## 1
Amino acid sequence: MALAGVLIAVGVVLALESARRFIVVGRGTLVPTMPTEHLVVSGLYRYVRNPMYVGVLVALAGETILFRSRSMVVFMLLMWLGFHLFVCLYEERTLKRRYDDEYLEFKRHVPRWLPRVKPWAGPGKAGKSESGTFRSRRVSN
């Protein structure tokens, strides 16, 4: 049961820290129609491209262990599939259009789901602000 509690706590912290950084550093919202002004490449985003989703899945894994529920396993897998499809079919294409080469470099160095062992150091100083974001070249959708 202790493992379940640890996974839930870690998952919640991952999701909340990532969401906070997304809003504060990226200067945007979690709503796809009101995106960030900057591509966030700092904090947990140096390890994995989708730390909010990973956090939710880690918390769900903890709940699955806590409740010893097969239906929670199915729910967790369906959530991952939904996240995966959304990321692959919408988010990555949108980020490519919005941030172009900056996103491609980020994508090349930071994995989608399984975190890197060492954080990505980020690109050279050119085009990158001090806060760990790229400046946006807004493109109309």
## 2
Amino acid sequence: MNQTIPPQFGGPPVPDQDKKQNTGKQPIVEPTLSSSINDISRRLRILEERYVNLRRKTQVTDQNMISSNRQEFDEIRAVNAEISELRREVHEMKDKIQIFIKELQMCANKEDVKIVERFINLWEPINFVTQNEAERIVKNVIDEQLKRK
């Protein structure tokens, strides 16, 4: 297909005889030029549609990325809150364990219990007399003394 480019678009100048044949007000447009312009217009529309479609896809992708980033940020924030809560609970547990250790240190150890056991066995508290028993014994002794007299 032999296409000629008109002089307006940088093509070779049109010879004078072609200009003389144009008696009407409209310029003569060669069929190849017209089909070229139509072809270029069609291609331009196709490119514009592709551009619009790409732009839409880019916008959708951007929106999806923003939404995904927000969700991930919210998840990270939730995980950080849980980590902070766990750290606080661990700290509280450490404090309670320290208190428990101090209380255990204040309790009697095995040696202290053995010493107390030896003293109890030595004293034999089973043989001790209660106050009521002591009063009763004293009363009985006094009564016996009074009866003898």
## 3
Amino acid sequence: MLKLFLMMLSILASAHASLATEPLDWSKLAVENNNRQTFTDSDIPAAVRSFDGESIVIRGYMMVSSVYQTKGIGKFAIWAESKEKPINQNLWQQLPLHKIIIVEMDDGLVTDFVINAPLEISGTLSVDVVRSEGRVFSLYKIRAKKVLKSTKRDGYYCAAEPGC
């Protein structure tokens, strides 16, 4: 009887694990106007705005130039995990606008520096146009509840290299 109970418990646990949220496909955040100088809030389509306030999981690579320490990091940016070959990081302004997200750790949480490995980030996405020096840097922020180092997937790359 105990063996049957343990087997049932194991089946239930594996079924629950399979219900875990799949990472959001970055392309669902794409916009038509990718001009960092002329982009306005009205260029964000309703389908993209619908993600505002949603809990998501997304995979990406820590942007090396966005961190200034190796431990206790509370804010950083990520490059998209992409099926497209990467561009040179110095050409980041040529990336489509949806390929960079600013990550702000939830209250009291921090993470450590990770290079050359994807991260899996869980949190609340906000559609929030962030400008720097008159240009759009990012369209999105995520308030991260969890940041986990993940493994590279075959056929996926960091959107910009080196610098991931």
## 4
Amino acid sequence: MTTDARASCPMHADFDPLSPAFLADPFAVQDALPRETPVFYAPSIDYYVVTRYADIEAVFLDEKTYSAAPAQLPLVQLVPEVTQILLANGLPLPKAGVIAELEGVRVAAAIAADLGVGDSPPPFDGTGACFIEMGAASAALVEGDWYAEPEPRVTIAEPDATHAAEKRAFESERLERWFAQ
């Protein structure tokens, strides 16, 4: 982002999405922004901010014009203590994709409920399962109750062709859901 680009865009020097006021009531902060500047530069985060729904939708739908690459970076450096969930035995919750997916689905449902769409979901219960491929025609099924106390309960089913078929179906369903047009 160049200085010239920032100079040509309205700027709100006081806008800070990490401020206590914004975190306490983001809608009040947004309501206080001038309506005539729905897009502005925020120096506190070194990003442009888009505030109207139609404009946000247009940005998300035009990936060739607008890049979300910088938005993937954390606004602040994350400390190790907040990047993991510790279990009852003191070890971190495994960072398996299936656990991340389950947590993400729960968070998405909670956000939707906050916006008045659907009911608030129960907390993530710490259970999850995944497959371990043991060759082209064999896989084991690992199931875990990761929040169990005094330590997680994990079972590993013997590798077999049935689990391999279930693994392929699981993968196909995810690929279809995530990437199908």
